[in-house]
Design goal:
Layout (H helix, E strand, L loop, with lengths): L16 H18 L13 E6 L5 H12 L3 E6 L11 H9 L5 E6 L4 H6 L5 E7 L5 H15 L6 E5 L6 H12 L3 E5 L15 E3 L2 H7 L2 E4 L15 H8 L3 H5 L6 E3 L12 H4 L6 H20 L3
Parallel strand pairs: 1-2, 1-3, 3-4, 5-6, 5-8, 6-7, 8-9
Helix pairs in contact: 1-5, 1-11, 2-11, 5-6, 5-11
């Protein structure tokens, strides 16, 4: 059996191209499982997984939990909002208390950059990063790559524009690393204030013209404006942002060829995407949600079996 070169999934940056391809290959098998009448396999029957979320999450937490149950794992859910963290307990103490209950794998989301990396240095369980601050969100990038491959046949040689709030997005960085390792060209597009100054050093194209970015791309991965992470005002108003960077049907109709429209969710309808685009045949947003379960099954299966 092929195994991953890493013990933890901390970020795409830590994976080799072979690791990514193995995860996507394994996810294809698990997607077949999900489409069977009986959607459960005993692959993690002896494994206990703790989902530890220090930030609010709906899609990611539910996707991981469903993936774990489809693999027959025992699941513990932990939310910081109703835990001893509120009483001053440290991250390491929290996790060590959970590990004392004989947990084998930890899926963690945390507002602080590097939190899963810190844990990986101190505990023996496998760690899966479900998002750390504005740094990385590796499973989202993997499911995005899986969806592009499923829709277009391959990721290599494709042109992908990541449009929106690049500065505050952990999805953007993971996608850049993942797409480049799989041979895609990447462009980021958004207001000057929402694109990190030195991002071009990662080998991506940078644009502030959404029409030009759409004309260039095969795929547009549209990111949410993350108002909850913005401490200052980065643009005059949501109405103005939508006018210059929002994608609606009129904008797509001007293009020579149809584009694949992606979004990691949740969507601010009428801001980054209009409803007629989000619900159109161009959008693969619900495919991303479905593929997320298969990809997360693949990640946890591979880590539990020797990663």
């Amino acid at each position: 059996m092929k195994v991953l070169s890493v013990k933890h999934l901390l970020g795409i940056k830590n994976l080799t191209t072979a690791d990514i391809e193995l995860i996507l290959e394994t996810a294809s098998y698990f997607k077949e499982v999900l489409n069977r009448p009986i959607k459960k396999v005993p692959s993690l029957r002896e494994v206990t997984v703790a989902n530890i979320f220090f930030e609010n999450s709906t899609r990611t937490r539910l996707s991981f939990e469903l993936a774990q149950k489809r693999l027959s794992a025992d699941v513990i859910n932990f939310a910081a909002s109703n835990s001893s963290v509120k009483k001053g307990e440290t991250l390491l103490d929290t996790v060590n208390n959970i590990l004392a209950m004989k947990v084998d794998m930890v899926v963690m989301r945390h507002a602080s950059v590097g939190a899963p990396h810190f844990l990986a240095q101190h505990i023996s369980a496998n760690i899966v990063n479900a998002g750390d601050g504005t740094h990385e969100h590796p499973t989202q990038a993997l499911l995005d790559a899986f969806t592009i491959k499923e829709k277009l046949g391959d990721v290599a040689g494709k042109k992908v524009a990541i449009i929106g709030d690049i500065t505050h997005s952990r999805v953007a960085l993971s996608n850049i690393f993942c797409l480049q390792k799989l041979g895609a060209e990447v462009m980021v597009c958004g207001p000057t204030t929402l694109i990190p100054r030195h991002l071009h050093q990662l080998g991506v194209k940078v644009s502030h013209d959404v029409d030009a970015a759409l004309a260039w791309a095969d795929v547009a991965n549209v990111l949410r404006i993350q108002l909850e992470r913005q401490q200052i005002q980065y643009f005059p108003s949501l109405r103005e942002y939508s006018r210059y960077f929002g994608i609606d049907k009129a904008r797509l109709d001007k293009l020579d060829a149809p584009k694949v429209i992606m979004h990691p969710g949740p969507i601010n309808r009428g801001v980054e995407l209009s409803s007629d685009v989000a619900d159109s045949e161009h959008a693969v947003i619900l495919d991303q949600v479905e593929n997320g379960v298969a990809v997360r099954m693949a990640v946890m299966y591979l880590l539990a079996n020797g990663g």
